[in-house]
Amino acid sequence: MNIVPWKPFGELTTLRKEMDSLWDRFFPETPFHERFLTHEWLPSVDLTETKDKLVVRAELPGLDTKDVDITLNEDVLTIRGEKKEEKEEKDEHRFFVERYCGTFERKIKLPTLVKTDKIDATFKNGILTINLPKSEEAKKKEIKIKVH
């Protein structure tokens, strides 16, 4: 039997890779931890479901409707746009700037089929709301099961 030195940091690296892989399988877009390393701004998004529709809400402060583009390709909803940088005033001195600017893109895999011809979106107070009515076959039907 050979004696093999134990390398605890090698095990931690392997664990980190496995956790990243697991995270990426559930959230295929840019991994959460990488957003902060690249200083990429991605709007916060909520996806909720009712009996008849899916609702997507995205926080887009400082944007206007002309700055946002929404597309649906099969079961992937894409919200993309650009947050423009404010112009620096001539006599203005900035100590620090924390607000992000630039282009962004969020892809959301929808959990069910929707009626593509009935989708509507509203934009009010920096919140984009997209209503996606479910297709008839996607609406869940309640089935009573008798217990014997």
Describe the structure.
The protein has helices spanning 8-26, 32-38, and strands spanning 45-49, 53-59, 68-73, 76-83, 102-109, 120-124, 127-133. With 148 residues, it is an alpha+beta fold. The chain folds into two domains: 8-40, no CATH class; 43-136, Sandwich (Immunoglobulin-like), CATH 2.60.40. The strands form two sheets. Strands 1-2-7-6 form a four-stranded antiparallel beta sheet, with no helix packed on it. A three-stranded antiparallel beta sheet has the order 3-4-5, with no helix packed on it. It is flat and about 70 Å long. The mean pLDDT is 81.
User: Roughly how much helix do the residues carry, as a percent range?
Assistant: 10-25%
The portion of residues forming beta strands comes to 25-35%
Pattern of helices and strands: HHEEEEEEE
What is the domain tally?
2
Structural class: alpha+beta
CATH architecture field of the largest domain: Sandwich
Oligomer: single chain
Key traits:
148 residues, alpha+beta, Immunoglobulin-like, 2 domains, 4-stranded antiparallel sheet, 3-stranded antiparallel sheet
